[in-house]
Each structure stands twice: as structure tokens, then as C-alpha cells.
């Protein structure tokens, strides 16, 4: 089955404000961003010289975590906060291990939708779909994802480099409550894949990065190790647990990257019993 898309929001691209997906795209060397995104990306990079390395480390972590999930037998994946497609994307990693894998991407940026429709082509044995909706609307994402995924069977849920854009207040985004809502829908044996910017490893730089994001109209909420680990409450962490992102089951590229210094990002993968 080839990829398809479900739209749950207006498809107007707002080029007056930076968007995290497009800022991330600039860091990864992509071309699908606007001057306002590049300007913010450059300001942040000037403050935190690890931003580009951090973006690349996040991508490699996603690849390793998805491969781990596929090799463990999971054949369904829900990726929220997809970002602009960068090869290899999640479905390519999963379907390289198991071509029958079914993947749903979700993001709230219309430009991501346009690129997803053009680029996210599934292996014939599997399926890909794209949901245009916000992480803060779990009912919509889960309802539309269920057109492709069977939530009675294990799913790998990934929110890579997303939770730091959500506050943890019950009367705000309620990041912890949101994640719990998604996890509640998952069958036993499912995996949760997360990464998150932290102030622990570079407090002064991350404080300034936070100011830059918020000045650009983007909420930003770095979390300590304890605050990030709280997302995994009630789940069984896979080894090596919650750890700086390049250290999670590192490959040769990650070992080499660690020699350049640790990036201020934590990562972890956990199983629902």
C-alpha cells in the first residue's frame, strides 16, 4: 500500500513565525524552511554550538530505536511530531527490517503534510499514512491513526525531540497527561520512544536557547533527568535506560559524535507491560 494522508487542520503555511519542524530542517541541512526559520535556527546555533549535532544525534537515535522495535517484532509505528521528511525516514528504517510494517506520521505543520504526501512511499507489503493534527489533540490523532494501525496489537509510539515544546502544567499542555493518554491506547508489548532537550548538561546555553524559542513565539520547556524520566512512569525501560541521546545503544557514528562532546538531549525507550 502506498502512503496516503488524512487532514484534520487547515493547510495554510504560516511563514510569519518560525516552526520547530522547519528550524530542525535547517539544522539538518534541508531546504524546506523559510527566512524566519533560518533566522531562529542561526540565533540558537550561535548560542548553543551543539544544535546541529543534537539534531543529527536525534535522527540517529530514532533510527536505532525504530530498528530495535522492528527487530523485536513490532510491525506498527505511530510517529508524532514527524517533521519534514529526511531520508532515511522512520518507515524506511522499519520496512528495511520488516517490509510489512505499517506507519502513521503526525505533525501540525502544513508544509510537512505536502512533503509527506510527495515523499512517504511505503513498501508494497506495508502501509504509510500521514495525519495532519497537533499532538495536543490525541483523540483526533488516535482516531485517524486507527484507520491504518490496529491498536489491539503492539505499536511503537515515538515523540522524538517533541516533548520540550510542551509544558507540563495540568491547565496548559499537560505533557505528562498527554503522553499517558496515548500510552493508554497502546496494547501490552508496545514501545514508547522519546527524546528531550535538557538543561542538565549545558544550563547557561539552554537557558538562552529557551529565550530565543520563546521570543520567536515557540514554547520551549527543557527538562531535568528526573522530569524527563517521569514520562516513563509505569513503563519498563529498555537498557541502557534514560541516557544522553548519543549513548543509547550507540553505533559507530554515535561513538565518533560523542568524542565531539555530549549534546544536551536525553533519550529513552520503554515497554508497556
Would you kindly provide a written description of the structure presented here, covering whatever features stand out?
Strands 1, 2, 3, 4, 5, 6, 7, 8 and 9 form a 9-stranded mixed β-sheet that branches. Helix 1 packs across helix 2, helix 2 (35-47) packs antiparallel against helix 8 (203-215) and helix 3 packs parallel to helix 4 (90-97). The longest helix is centred in the N-terminal third of the chain and has 21 residues, at 51-71. This protein has 273 residues and is an alpha/beta fold. The two termini are 31 Å apart. The chain is globular and about 45 Å long. Strand 5, helix 7 (175-185) and strand 6 form a beta-alpha-beta unit. The protein is built from 10 helices and 9 strands.
What topology does this entry show?
Elements: E1 4-7, H1 20-27, H2 35-47, H3 51-71, E2 76-80, H4 90-97, E3 102-107, H5 110-119, E4 127-132, H6 138-145, E5 156-160, H7 175-185, E6 191-197, H8 203-215, H9 225-229, E7 236-237, E8 243-244, H10 252-258, E9 265-271
Parallel strand pairs: 1-4, 2-3, 2-5, 3-4, 5-6
Antiparallel strand pairs: 6-9, 7-9, 8-9
Helix pairs in contact: 1-2, 2-8, 3-4
- Stretches where pLDDT is under 50 for at least 5 consecutive residues are none
Radius of gyration: 17 Å
Give the tally of β-strands.
9
Envelope shape: globular
Into which percentage range does the β-strand content fall? 15-25%
Instruction: Report mean pLDDT, rounded to a whole number.
Output: 91
Run of helices and strands: EHHHEHEHEHEHEHHEEHE
Largest sheet, if any? 9 strands, mixed
Q: Percent helix among the residues?
A: 25-40%
Task: Supply the helix-strand structural class.
Answer: alpha/beta
The span between the termini is: 31 Å
Tell me the number of helical segments per DSSP (H or I, 4 or more residues long): 10
